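batch job 7 of whatever, protein = Exostosin GT47 domain-containing protein
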Amino acid sequence: MTNTWVSISRLDRPLVAALMQRLLSSGVRTADGDSADFFFIPLVMRTKGQAATHLKAVVYYIRQHWPWWDRLQGGHRHLLVVPADLGRRSLPEEHLQMTENVTYLTHWGLHSNHSAGRWVESHRPGRDIVLPPLHNADEPIVFSPLHVLNSRHKERTRGLFFAGRICGDGKAPHEGRCDDTKSSFSGNIRQRVSMHHWNRTGWTVANHVKAYTSALSSHTFCLSPSGGGYGRRSVQALIMGCVPVLLGDGLHQPFEPEVDWSQFAVRVPEEDIPHLHHVLEAINESKIEELQGRLWCAAQHMYYSTTYGEVMGEDGRFDAFEMLMEILRMRRDHPDLDPREYTQMDTSFADFIDCKLAPTGGRVALCSQNRLVKASGEPRLRPCRNEHPGLQMRSIHMFYSWPGGAVCGQNWTIAACPRSWI
């Protein structure tokens, strides 16, 4: 493990640190355990080794020093973060049994076994929560064409776009085909898409393209499969204004099923991979415009803008952290309700999902990371680079440059950070 005591920015997948920052600056933290709705355990479990080394001791320590683990029937309402590729299934079985009642926050939403990927179900809908992966304020998302101040919109081709590793062995496919080495990679989805559609007119299915950011901005559909575990492309596609095409049976996307991805993405069963072109061609222009019209709001829920700064002109009130808080509110207020029914049973939640809920706090003005709009010379933009000169805005380093996340701006007093919700 990298020595993060020397430089905390070396921490791989710093989801725990990001959540800790926002738990402080958002004002939701309490020092009174008896009044707490949930209990966040700030343990880093990026690898199975970290979990095996520390989790048992941490639970023992918690039980020795505080009453709520045992009082809540062995970990109910306790939150643990596992940002590993395969979520909670990366933990030893002994640890899974010990934390059976815990709510896991992971990026991996597999809720049923997947034979081709040799994956065992991991996510437990209604108990665990699938969080979006952290996306640094870097390419491609800092060129998001969804920014409200962007006046230059490219016309999008009707085809499908995918660029990235296709074969499990890392080699480029030959005429669309991979050999059988590591066929379990991506659940054999990328390989099958390549085999059936590698040379389809108007489509891009390749290991590499020269202009990745431009391609995301100029295609209507973007293939968003998993890789060796959870994938990042569905969130990336949303922010870039490209309709995600979801392939992966039994796999929930971030904040699913609480959020209905069918409102802004296209889910295709794996058995239809050979006919994927017919599936997409059957979607009429009216439906495409409907899906595209929902991308700006949906993308806000999947990006940690209060941590990194805005990329779409958003103010952060509906970002990934606030989305997590809203789901936890629903768990508190409606503990027995099926997550798929949240929007039908709670109007505030429905309005939050649609980015219509009026803030209860003050105005929040995030600095901007969008370089597409900055390049146009838009005078209303407040670039983070200008407000925080000298900071490395293109990397995770900028996230650690101020307490509480970007929402705090230049305010170093966490208790005084602006808050959309009170």
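notes: The longest helix spans residues 48-65.
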